[in-house]
Amino acid sequence: MTKELVSEAADEGASEPTVDATAAGEEEQFEAPERGSAEELLDAGAHDALDAMRHSTAHVMAEAVLDLVPGAKLGIGPAITDGFYYDFQLPRALTPGDLEAIEARMAESVAADHPFVRRELSPAEGRAFFVERDQPFKVESLDDLAARAKAEGSPMPPVSVYEHGAFVDLCKGPHVASTGKIGPFKLLAVAGAYWRGDEKRPMLQRIYGTVWPTQKELEDYLWRREEAKKRDHRRLGIQLDLFSFHDISPGAAFWHPKGWTLYRTLESAMRELQARRGYVEVYTPPLVHKRLWEQSGHWDLYREHMFLVEAEDQTFSLKPMNCPESTYIYRSRVRSYRELPLRIAEYGKLHRNELSGTLSGLTRVRHFVTDDGHIYLRPDQIGSEIEALLGEVREAYGWVGLEPRFTFGTRPDKALGDVALWDRAETLIGDALKRSGMSYRVKEKDGAFYAPKIDIQVEDALGREWQTATIQVDLVMLPERFDLHYIDEEGRPQRPVAIHRAIYGSLERFIGVLTEHFAGAFPFWLAPVQAIAIPIADRHVPAGEELAGVLRSHGLRVEVDGSSMRMQNKIRLAQEQKIPYMLVLGDREVEARSATVRRRGAAQGEAQPTEEWAALAERLAAEARERRPS
Ligand SMILES: [Zn+2]
Ligand SMILES: [Zn+2]
User: Which of 19, 73, 492, 544 is 20 to 30 Å from the Cα of 353, by its Cα?
Assistant: First the structure.
């Protein structure tokens, strides 16, 4: 089994966010992979016109820093997602005041509209140029390139530099035509970064900035960035008392009562859908002997990501995925073609040994559960089953108002298994996607080695794209490696196909995404506390308890604020907790066994209806059953 095969199998339901940069919150992170090799040092990261403008802005920033802080040594300054950075070695630490001065100096350079001019120097001229300007990091980059050329036995190519005004940088480009083409920009932050990402080398100061074609786009970006900080699920998790993280178990959430209610509500909704679709649910052991992973191929290639446990001189592992164990249930007896598709769901507790430095809230964890399903079917059933699975996705994402996007990955060059079966499976999947009427794109050769796959992405309220779920049509891994069969109409053993499917993906990750998407104001059906009774005075508290009892008997999640705070404070607190309904009780309401119903986020002066308890309970219970996304 190849490394890719194993890691793709391991990916199911727990893949990375496509964009993680703006979600980081307190310790804000920027997408800025370390660049170590000589080749990477010269890469401007400019793949399109916008990147070229961003990288050009980095040159203008470096020009300003050289002007304002004499003796500055230049590192590198590539374009990155949403902006750019430049690394500097400086005689002193930069302050926020410095950023303002640098921005002002940059604005002058933009106003002067200096053309960017490319020049080529011989390797010797180039080196002499940067030695003379006392730029040791540039000289080092050139020496590395020369050493590499020598090692390869090829001549060192000419050195290209870009010049605007009095500023010259070692650079492959491309750039915009002149500094006047640079759009509205803003410097965002200063962070430390080791030269070439090597902690044994000097720590430089990295200035991050952003630049956009128009003022409107800049303002939108700055708004999204602020909003992302406010919506950070780690912050909201504490504020709304949903979950917390502790050093004694890195990468695993401690679920508080409200967060666990959210978790179980999502699980029950999926269980209800699965029951309608004829799934059966199983539970297999989290701790299994390493023999299982030797058979599946994971032992050789995925072991470093497994937590191992020794007992009685035997090695066990905490399972990183449910797939292989599900075959034990399939193989527990002879299966007839009549039983297929056999849909086996499992909410198994999974552990993957991610490096502690990469863990982040609910989106990068070591301990998680997926809404996992393994469907065993005949090859001729692939089309109808995929169509039904797309329906599952559409329904579940409708509950939270997210629009799923599908990416169909087809056979990669090094695929395992029978090519004819691959072709047939791909045709059936393609037809099912077309019939679904949902938009999708095809990524040629992007399937897993054992399976064509459909990846599902969503875009959240801030326009960030997240990979959540996946459907993989496994032609090889489970069927062949675990030698699965069913008995066909003529009594002959046949090889089934297995579909790996997760709709939410990891529950942990999905909740992280939803928390940020809704900024904690979850839809009514999902909210941990759906309504709160607010008695105006102490004498109304018993009626509040009674009302809560009526609503709870309809399956609703209700609290009573029995404190002695004033009503306005109780409402403010309930608003902060983002509770969908506030039910206010005074003399009049208690007398009539009714409540004044205030919706979360209701506008000032909006009419607040008074509803009788029984009718209110019926109405809210019906609303919860609908699972509407608001
Ligand atoms: Zn450049
Ligand atoms: Zn699986």
Answer: 19
Say how many Å lie between the CA of residue 336 and the centre of ligand 1.
Answer: 65
Task: Say which ligand is closest to the CA of 56.
Answer: 1
- Tell me how far apart the alpha carbons of residues 511 and 234 are, in angstroms, rounded to a whole number: 11
Return the ligand number nearest the Cα of 374. 2
Find the ligand nearest to 170 CA. 1
**Positions of E strands within 16-126:** 73-74, 79-80, 83-89, 117-121
Largest Cα–Cα separation, the chain? 95
Nearest residue to 6 (alpha-carbon basis) of 295, 302, 294, 410: 302
Structure tokens at 532: 């709160």
- The Å distance, Cα 175 to ligand 1 centre, comes to 6
What is d(CA 354, CA 367) in angstroms, rounded to the nearest whole number? 10
The ligand that comes nearest to the alpha carbon of residue 371 is 2
The neighbour count for residue 203, using CB atoms within 10 Å, is 12
Measure the CA angle with vertex 41, ends 39 and 42; round to 5°. Answer: 70
Distance 368 CA to ligand 2 centre (A): 14
* pLDDT more than 90, % of the chain: 77
pLDDT in tens, 207-261: 999 999 999 999 999 998 888 888 899 999 999 999 999 999 999 999 999 999 9
Cut 0.90: pTM above it: no
List of residues 6+ apart from 356 with CB closer than 8 A: 250, 251
- Alpha carbons within 13 angstroms on the beta-carbon side of residue 251 total 16
DSSP string, 213-277: SSHHHHHHHHHHHHHHHHH-HHHHHHHTT-EEE-TTSTT-EEE-HHHHHHHHHHHHHHHHHHHHT
Using DSSP bridges, classify how beta strands 594-599 and 497-506 pair: parallel, antiparallel or unpaired: unpaired
Tell me the domains of the chain and their CATH numbers. Answer: 27-230 (3.30.980.10), 235-512 (3.30.930.10), 531-626 (3.40.50.800)
Among all bound ligands, the one having the nearest atom to the CA of 322 is 2
User: How far, in Å, is the centroid of ligand 1 from the Cα of 421?
Assistant: 49
Cα of 407 vs centre of ligand 2, distance in Å, is: 18
DSSP state of 444: T
Distance from the alpha carbon of residue 286 to the mean position of ligand 2, in angstroms? 15
User: pLDDT tens across 74-101, in order?
Assistant: 999 999 989 999 999 999 999 888 999 9
3-state DSSP call for residue 589? helix
Q: Report the separation in Å between the CA atom of 120 and the middle of ligand 1, taken as the mean of its atom positions.
A: 13
Residue 3's pLDDT is 44
Distance between CA atoms of residues 44 and 26, nearest Å = 28
Q: Nearest bound ligand to CA 370? A: 2
Q: pLDDT tens-digit profile of 55-79?
A: 999 999 999 999 999 899 999 999 9
Dump pLDDT digits (tens) for 358-370. Answer: 788 998 899 999 9
Distance CA 578, CA 574 (A): 6
